[in-house]
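Input record (Table S2, row 615):
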Amino acid sequence: MSTPLVALTDIKKKFGAVTALRGVTVDVMPGETFALLGDNAAGKSTLMKVLTGVHQPDHGTIEWEGEKVTFPTPAISRTRGIEMIYQDFALADNLDVRTNVFLGREPKKNLLGIPGLRIVDTKHMERETRRVLDSLDIEINPRLKVRRLSGGQRQSVAIGRALAFDAKLIIMDEPTASLSVAKVDKLIEVTQRLKELGIAVIIITHRLDEAFAVADRLAVMRQGEVVGRFEVNEVSEHQVANLISHGTMGDAVLGHHPGERRSIGSTLSADQPGSPQKPMGANEE
Amino acid sequence: MSATSVKDLIEKPELDEDSALTKAKHFVGDYGLGILFIGVLVFLSIASPHFLNSENIWNVLRQASIVGVIALGMTFVMITAGIDLSVGSIVGVTGILVAKAAPDGTSAVIVPIIVGIGVGALIGFINSAMIVWGKILPFLATLAMLALARSAALVISGGTVVSGLSEPFQKIGSGYVGPVPAPVVIFFGAAVLTDFVLSRTKFGYHVYAVGGNEESAQKVGISVGKTLFGVYVLTGVLAAVSGIVLTARLNGGVPLSGTGYELQAIAAVVIGGTSLFGGIGSIRGTVLGVLLIGFVLNGMDLLNVSSYYQQGVQGLILVLAVLLNRWRSD
Ligand SMILES: Nc1ncnc2c1ncn2[C@@H]1O[C@H](COP(=O)(O)OP(=O)(O)O)[C@@H](O)[C@H]1O
Ligand SMILES: [Mg+2]
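Output record (magnesium ion complex):
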């Protein structure tokens, strides 16, 4: 096997008394589409924030293209080709598409060749925006204000932003949470396009249909641990569903009734010193 | 809808085909104020024989310059969805300190300018420290500074006018560059500079991004804190420039000078199309707002309208502008 694009090994992360990650190991191959599944508060977002440099791991290593790395800030992971697409797409409605694609990384040029007088290079922004949207087979006028775009178009702009900076890995956190069914189909199409472009994708989701539609491999997280790693054709949606909610793949599970929805709070334990274990409040996200 | 393909659903810009009514609204929204401005100029040149007199025009521009310079900074602040209520008090306190640094009989001019700008920058810095580090709402932080800086002006001056300034310093307020009064040169110079910064530089782009969506700005790696520091310091400096010009013109530091300028500046900025909610606005719009108010007030003087009406008319323009802004195309 070739070297993974990224390998996370034994990653641990605590937030005060809350243990979000208890030694997680996953790797993603170049160009692969990888689904990260799990209930709310399983630790999916935290794992990705460790990878992008939003959080520093308490323990464990990150290898990028076979080389051990640390990402002190998201800006640094971005320079290596890791792009995060946020749930809300992180766009500014008041600005146009090309400006959003380059938001925070505006290309500059000298005004009238005067050294030191640096202005934003809007021509470059427009050209590159057209190029990346073209490569996704998406037609949006780069000068349109983002306010005027639909949900799916906004997502395209967010993905275009990742492509404009030669991403090797695009992470999508709950990409379909804010999309209608029709738009989920489009996302699947775009994800396939990214695969053709040779870009690896990690798609975080708690929706199985989505994971099975796009992913080559998937991993299931539960209570801060990886409880299963599969090729998509090795398992059924049903088995994975059980794994997500009960931690095992069988039907009769640990005293839980099949299909019972666990309370979100119970998927995490608080190991507060001196106090008895108590469930965490739900919905910290 | 199920018959349309997914692609059609997603890729059509939602508002591509605007109706004729929408187009008309956008036209009025985009150009209404400019048309009103030209209308006012045409009306006044017909209604009053003195209006187009070049001396009158320069006078209007000179008077508008003082609040105008402040409004330029206020534009940046308001685009970030903030507000700076301390600018009028900055005019007052810089006036006093500048007057003390430019005593009569000397040729002091550089030192008082540096003092004035330094004071403005310092107050702007304190404002942003309260807002960024102290996480105090801009309205409250700068309201506190409005009171503090005014007190400082009164305490330092002992409540009296600091008068008698050096000859060369007075020129900043009363001199000319060719036929153009110095304050007008300063206002338009500052306008060109701030327009460039806001519309062409990375800092300007970040100002719009922070005002449009602070959280998104943060996520894409824009330093919201640094941007806000830049904005409030710039506004403090421009308020100080206004204080310097006013002091030079009055030939003295007046502790209560600049009182109420914050509201006049905010009005001009809003009339010029800047949104109180942030993310939208321009220096060009603000300059138009400043000039519109200036010419309307002047016209009322020339037409012998009682000065009791002046504030009311400003209020009407403000409301009209806000309504027009709703119809803007983007
Ligand atoms: N910045 C943070 N501070 C404190 N606790 C956090 C923080 N981020 C995540 N957590 C906690 O870590 C756990 C895992 O959260 P998260 O990674 O967001 O889960 P998921 O994305 O799988 O829903 C949750 O209990 C959450 O409350
Ligand atoms: Mg999450």
